[in-house]
Specification:
- The complex is a heterodimer of chains A (about 450) and B (about 500).
- By secondary structure, chain A is an all-alpha fold.
- Chain A has 16 helices and 3 strands.
- Chain A folds into 2 domains: about 1-135 and about 305-375 and about 390-445, no CATH class; about 145-275.
- A 3-stranded antiparallel sheet of chain A has the order 1-2-3, with helices on one face.
- The radius of gyration of chain A is 23 Å and the shape is globular.
- Chain B is an alpha+beta fold and about 500 residues long.
- Chain B has a domain at about 175-200 and about 215-390 and about 400-500: 3-Layer(aba) Sandwich (Beta-lactamase), CATH 3.40.710.10.
- Chain B has helices spanning about 1-25, 35-70, 75-80, 130-135, 135-140, 145-155, 170-180, 210-220, 230, 240-250, 290-295, 295-305, 310-320, 345-350, 360-370, 410-425, 480-485, 485-500; strands spanning about 80-85, 85-90, 95-100, 105-110, 160, 160-165, 185-190, 195-200, 260-265, 265-270, 275, 285, 375-380, 385, 395, 400-405, 440-445, 455-460, 470-475.
- In chain B, strand 2 (about 85-90) and strand 3 (about 95-100) form a beta hairpin.
- The longest helix of chain B has about 35 residues, at about 35-70.
- Chain B is globular, with a radius of gyration of 30 Å.
- Chain B starts with a helix and ends with a helix.
- The chains are: A mainly alpha (about 450), B alpha+beta (about 500).
- Chains A and B meet through helix 1, helix 9, helix 12, helix 14 and helix 15 of A and helix 1, helix 2 and helix 6 of B.
C-alpha cells in the first residue's frame, strides 16, 4: 500500500506543480483581477494539496509524528498569511502573494525533510518576517520623505557592510555574518534594500553624467566592501542591480555596455588576484578532476540532480544531505533530487512568473522613484535565482547565494519578503492612483469632445 | 497581458523622442522607459530559457553516469532497495546472478567461473567489465508496481533489471580453450554491428572467489591478472602494423603503388641501422602485395623510409592512435609517434611495428573491422538490452557507426592485400577452406633476445562479405603464422558452424 502511495504521489506532485506553474502564466490572459480570482483560488488549492501529499510522504517514510505537527503549523500559517494579506490589503497583487506562499511552502517542506530543527527555526522566522512585512505597505504610504534620504541610505548601507567586515565572524572563509543574542544576521541581505533605495533616490530625477558617476563611486564602494568580505555572490548581485537600474533610469544602452566591460574586467582582475575566485572557476570547468576537494560540492549537487531525474526519487528516498550546505546554497538540487527535475523546472517557471509580474508593475508606475525600486527588486530577485540555480547545476561557477523564500536562512527570507511587500505597497498605491486617473481621463475626454 | 504589452511598445518611440529632449537638460524627469524594461524582461527570460535547456540536457544525457560514479552515495540507497540483476549471454545463459539464501543474504554467482572473468567482471571489490558498465541498470528495478508493493509488504528487496550482453558462450569457450595456458587475449566481433561476441584475457581468475583472492592478486601483481589484456594490454603490434604503413603508402602513391618492387636479401640497412627479415628469410624480388603477404621487413623498412612523416602522423590519427577510442569498456590508448625529426632507426622500426609503437588488441580489432566494413567503424559494444524481471525491454542498444577511418577504396585495397596474406603469404593455414579469410599476421619481438615474440593475427571472414572479425595475441608463443592463425581458423569455423547450422 505504502509503495503505491509513494510511487503515485511522485506523479501527483509533479502534475500539481505543473498545473500551478501553468496557472501562473494562464492568469496573464485576463487583465482584470476579478477575472483571475478563480485561477488564484485554484492555485491555493493546488498548494495545499501539494503540501498534504508531500507531508504524507514524509510521514509514511519516517513514521515520525513531528512531521504531522509541523504540517499542521505550516498549513495554519499559509492559510492565515493569505487571508490576512488579502483582508488588510484588498488591492494587493494576488499572483505575487500566491507565488510567495507557494515558494515558502516548498521551502519549508524541503527544509523539514532535511532537518526538523532547522524547519522549526525557519518557521518562526517566516512568521516574524510576515509580521514585519505587513507593516511595509502601510509605512510606504504614510511616510513621504523616502525620496529625500539619498545619502543617508548610501552611508548607512556602507557603514553596515563595513561593520560586518571589521566585526563579523569568519565562516567558511567569508566575513558575512555576526551573531547577536544567539541569532545570526547576514547584513548584506538587508543592505540590498537600502542599496536599491539609494539608487532610486539618487537617479530618479537626475541622470546627468556627474550624478551617475557619483552614484557609481558609492555603489562601487558597496561592491568592493563585499568583495573584500569574500561575499562574491552578493557583490555580483549588487553590481548587476546597479548596472540595470542605471540603464533603465537613463535609457542609455551605453551604460549597459560600460557595465558589461567593467564587469568582465573586474572578473578578470578578481580571477588573478584572489585564490578563492580561481578555485571556483576551476571547480566549474572541471569538477570531476577535483572531486575530492574543490569540486566536491558541485559534483555532489550534480549527483543529486542527475539521480533525481525527471520525477525525482521521492521524499526521503534520496540522499541530498550528501551535498554540503544543501539547505542554503543547494536547495534547488535537493528539490530536483526528491521532487524531480520537472518539478524543478516548474519552480523556475514560478520564479519567472514573479519576475514578469514585477516588471509589469514597473511598466505601469509613473513615479520614477518607485518604479526604479520595483525594477531593482525584480533584477536582484531574478539574478539571485540565476546565480544559485545556475551554480548548482554547473551552468555558471558557484557563488553561494540563497534561493529566495526557499533556502534556509532568516536574513534571506526576511529580506525577500520585505522586498515583495515593498512591491505590494507600491502596487497598492498604483491601484489607487489608477482609479483617480481613470476619473481624470474621462473628464479630459469629455472636455476635448466639447472643444471639437 | 500580451495585448497590453503591444500597446505599450507602440507608444515607446514617441516617448523616446520626448526623453531625448529632456535628458539633455538632465534634471527633468524622463518619461518613457518602457522599452528598456521590456528589454530587461526579455533578456532575463532568455537567460533562464538557456539555463533550463542546459538542465534538461544535463539530465537527459548523464543520469547513469551520475549514479555510476563511485563518489555518489545514492548507489547504496538503490542497493538497499533492490538486489543486483543478472547478466546474460546473447542467448540467455546466465553469466552472473545474485542468489539469496533463506535469510535474504545476497551472493553474486558466476556460473562460468573463470570464463568471463574480465569481460563480465566482478562487482564487490570495485567493479569491472559489464558489472561496471551496466551497474546503473543492474541496481535499478523496473519491476511492476504490483511486484514492488508485494515485495514491500513481504519486506524483501526488488529484483534489479537484467542485462543481456552480445557475448556468445560457445565462441568465448573456444577462444578460452585455444589460448590455453598462454598469456594473451582474443577479441571476436561482428563486423557490421560492432557486437563483441567474445573477449578473453589470460591469465584469468575466478570472480566467485574475488574477495578471497583479491589481496593476493593485488599484492602479487607481476602477472597482471586483473588487467583485461584485450582492452588494456599494450603490445608492440609487430607486422600487423604493416596494415597501417601500407595504408599510408597507398595514400601517398595512389597511382603507382602497383609498380613498386624491391629486392629482398633478408635485410635493409641505412647508415648504422639495419632491419632483418623474420628468422633471416630472403624474399627475393617482391612487389607491394607480396611484400605485405610475406610480411617482408626489409621491403617495409624501405617503404617506411620513403613516407612523408607529416601525412603519416595524420593517417595514424585517422586510425585513432593516441586518441580516445569509441569504447565504453575501460581501455588504454595506443601509442605511436611519427615525427619529422625521428632518427632513421626509429622510423624503420616504427614502419614494421616495432620500436616504441604499442597497441591494444581491441584497437587492432577495430581497425580490422573498419577495413572489413568498407572503411566504416561500428562502435564495439557489449550490452544489447536491459529487461525487467518480467522480461519487458527497459532499454535496448542499437549498433552505432563511429564514422570512416578510411575510404571505401582504401578498405578494398587493404582487403585485397590481407586476402593475399592467406592465399600467398604468412597465413596460409587459413587457405583452402569453404570460406575465404583475410588478415595479417605478426610476430612481435618484445625483448632483445632474438626469437622471443608474441604471435599476432588479426583478420576477418568471409573476405567477399565480411561478417566476423577476430584479433588474437598469444604472448611469447612464437610466430603469428604458426601459433595465432590456427586459433583464428578454429574461431572462424565455429562461428560459421553456429550461424549456418
Amino acid at each position: 500500500m505504502q509503495e503505491y502511495i509513494v510511487e503515485l504521489s511522485k506523479y501527483f506532485i509533479t502534475i500539481g506543480m505543473a498545473l500551478y506553474a501553468f496557472a501562473c502564466f494562464y492568469a496573464f490572459r485576463y487583465r482584470k483581477e476579478e477575472e483571475r480570482k478563480g485561477i488564484y483560488i485554484a492555485q491555493n488549492i493546488i498548494m495545499f494539496f501539494l503540501q498534504a501529499v508531500s507531508f504524507l510522504d514524509l510521514y509514511i517514510a519516517s513514521r515520525d509524528i513531528q512531521y504531522v505537527f509541523l504540517y499542521a503549523f505550516i498549513q495554519i500559517f499559509l492559510f492565515a498569511a493569505i487571508m490576512m494579506v488579502t483582508m488588510i490589503y484588498e488591492t494587493c497583487n494576488r499572483l505575487l502573494l500566491n507565488n510567495m506562499c507557494m515558494l515558502l511552502s516548498i521551502g519549508l517542506c524541503m527544509i523539514s525533510r532535511l532537518s526538523l530543527n532547522k524547519a522549526i527555526r525557519q518557521y518562526v522566522i517566516v512568521i516574524l518576517s510576515l509580521t514585519v512585512s505587513l507593516l511595509v505597505p502601510f509605512l510606504l504610504s504614510k511616510i513621504r520623505f523616502w525620496k529625500k534620504l539619498t545619502w543617508v541610505y548610501a552611508a548607512v548601507g556602507i557603514l553596515m557592510l563595513s561593520a560586518v567586515l571589521i566585526l563579523g565572524e569568519v565562516t567558511h572563509g567569508s566575513k558575512i555574518s555576526f551573531t547577536l543574542g544567539g541569532v545570526t544576521f547576514q547584513p548584506s541581505e538587508f543592505v540590498k534594500i537600502l542599496f536599491l533605495f539609494f539608487l532610486a533616490a539618487a537617479l530618479w530625477e537626475d541622470v546627468s553624467l556627474k550624478r551617475v558617476l557619483v552614484t557609481a563611486i558609492l555603489a562601487g564602494l558597496y561592491v568592493i566592501v563585499l568583495v573584500i568580505s569574500k561575499d562574491l555572490g552578493s557583490a555580483l548581485i549588487f553590481f548587476i542591480g546597479f548596472v540595470f537600474v542605471v540603464f533603465v533610469a537613463s535609457g542609455r544602452y551605453l551604460y549597459l555596455l560600460i557595465g558589461a566591460v567593467l564587469g568582465s574586467a573586474a572578473a578578470c582582475v578578481a580571477y588573478f588576484l584572489f585564490d578563492h575566485v580561481r578555485i571556483r572557476v576551476l571547480a566549474w570547468q572541471d569538477p570531476w578532476s577535483y572531486i575530492d576537494d574543490q569540486g566536491y560540492q558541485i559534483t555532489q549537487s550534480l549527483f543529486a540532480v542527475g539521480s533525481g531525474s525527471w520525477f525525482g526519487m521521492g521524499l526521503l528516498k534520496g540522499n541530498p544531505k550528501a551535498i554540503p550546505y544543501v539547505d542554503a546554497d543547494f536547495i534547488f538540487s535537493a528539490i530536483c533530487e526528491e521532487f524531480g527535475v520537472i518539478f524543478g523546472i516548474c519552480l523556475i517557471l514560478v520564479c519567472i512568473s514573479c519576475f514578469v509580474v514585477i516588471m509589469d508593475i514597473a511598466l505601469k508606475i509613473h513615479d520614477r522613484f518607485y518604479q526604479l525600486i520595483v525594477y531593482g527588486i525584480g533584477i536582484m530577485y531574478i539574478f539571485q535565482i540565476f546565480l544559485t540555480i545556475g551554480g548548482g547545476i554547473k551552468f555558471i561557477p558557484l557563488t553561494g547565494v540563497t534561493l529566495p523564500f526557499i533556502s534556509y536562512g532568516g536574513s534571506s527570507v526576511m529580506t525577500s519578503m520585505i522586498m515583495f511587500f515593498i512591491i505590494q505597497g507600491i502596487y497598492i498605491r498604483l491601484q489607487q492612483e489608477g482609479e483617480k486617473r481613470v476619473v481624470r481621463k474621462n473628464n479630459n475626454r469629455f472636455s476635448r469632445n466639447t472643444e471639437e | 497581458m500580451s495585448e497590453k504589452i503591444t500597446t505599450d511598445s507602440v507608444e515607446t518611440p514617441k516617448n523616446n523622442v520626448q526623453a531625448a529632449g529632456t535628458t539633455v537638460r538632465g534634471k527633468k524627469k524622463r518619461l518613457g522607459n518602457k522599452r528598456e524594461i521590456m528589454i530587461t524582461l526579455c533578456f532575463f527570460v532568455a537567460v533562464f530559457i538557456g539555463m533550463t535547456g542546459y538542465l534538461v540536457y544535463f539530465v537527459a544525457t548523464s543520469e547513469q553516469d551520475m549514479i555510476n560514479n563511485s563518489y555518489n552515495s545514492r548507489q547504496q540507497i538503490l542497493l538497499s532497495r533492490n538486489y543486483r540483476g543478472s547478466i546474460l549471454s546473447r542467448d540467455g545463459e546466465i553469466l552472473a546472478q545474485t542468489v539469496l539464501d533463506e535469510n535474504q543474504n545476497e551472493k553474486r554467482e558466476y556460473p562460468f567461473e573463470n570464463l568471463f572473468a574480465h569481460i563480465v567482471g566482478y562487482s564487490t571489490q570495485g567493479r569491472m567489465g559489464v558489472e561496471a558498465l551496466a551497474n546503473y541498470y543492474l541496481i535499478n528495478s523496473n519491476t511492476s508496481i504490483s511486484n514492488k508493493a508485494a515485495n514491500d509488504m513481504a519486506g524483501v528487496k526488488n529484483p534489479g533489471d537484467n542485462v543481456y550482453t552480445t557475448l556468445d558462450v560457445q565462441i568465448q569457450q573456444l577462444a578460452d580453450e585455444q589460448l590455453d595456458i598462454y598469456r594473451g587475449a582474443i577479441v571476436v566481433t561482428e563486423v557490421k554491428t560492432g557486437k563483441i561476441l567474445a573477449m578473453v584475457s589470460h591469465p584469468d581468475f575466478d570472480p566467485n572467489e574475488i574477495e578471497e583472492i583479491w589481496d593476493d592478486l593485488v599484492e602479487n601483481d607481476s602477472s597482471s591478472v586483473l588487467v583485461n589484456r584485450a582492452t588494456q594490454g599494450l603490445y608492440p603490434p609487430g607486422s600487423t602494423f604493416k596494415i597501417v604503413t601500407a595504408l599510408e603508402y597507398i595514400r601517398e602513391n595512389a597511382d603507382t603503388y602497383l609498380n613498386y618492387s624491391f629486392q629482398c636479401n633478408g635485410y635493409y640497412a641505412e647508415g648504422d641501422s639495419r632491419i632483418n627479415c623474420y628468422h633471416g628469410s630472403k624474399h627475393g624480388l617482391v612487389d607491394f602485395e607480396l611484400s605485405f603477404a610475406k610480411s617482408c621487413n626489409a621491403s617495409f623498412a624501405n617503404i617506411g623510409m620513403g613516407l612523408d612523416r607529416n601525412t603519416f602522423a595524420e593517417t595514424l590519427e585517422d586510425l585513432l592512435f593516441g586518441e580516445e577510442l569509441p569504447l565504453t569498456l575501460n581501455y588504454v590508448k595506443s601509442s605511436v609517434h611519427v615525427e619529422e625529426n625521428m632518427s632513421t632507426d626509429e622510423m624503420m622500426q616504427t614502419s614494421i611495428g616495432q620500436g616504441k609503437t604499442q597497441i591494444t588488441p581491441i584497437h587492432l580489432n577495430m581497425i580490422t573491422c573498419a577495413i572489413a566494413n568498407g572503411g566504416t567503424l561500428m562502435k564495439p559494444y557489449v550490452i544489447d538490452r536491459v529487461e525487467n524481471e518480467e522480461g519487458d525491454v527497459v532499454k535496448s542498444f542499437k549498433s552505432d557507426s563511429y564514422g570512416n577511418l578510411m575510404s571505401e577504396e582504401e578498405a578494398a585495397i587493404l582487403t585485397q592485400l590481407m586476402t593475399s596474406v592467406v592465399e600467398n603469404g604468412t597465413a596460409s593455414k587459413l587457405k583452402g577452406l569453404n570460406y575465404t579469410a583475410a588478415g595479417k599476421t605478426g610476430s612481435a619481438e618484445y625483448n632483445n633476445v632474438k626469437g622471443d615474440s608474441h604471435a599476432w593475427f588479426t583478420g576477418f571472414a568471409p573476405a567477399e562479405d565480411p561478417e566476423v572479425c577476430v584479433t588474437i595475441i598469444v604472448e611469447g608463443a612464437g610466430s603469428g603464422g604458426d601459433y595465432a592463425v590456427p586459433i583464428a581458423r578454429r574461431l572462424f569455423d565455429a562461428y560459421f558452424a553456429e550461424t549456418d547450422g
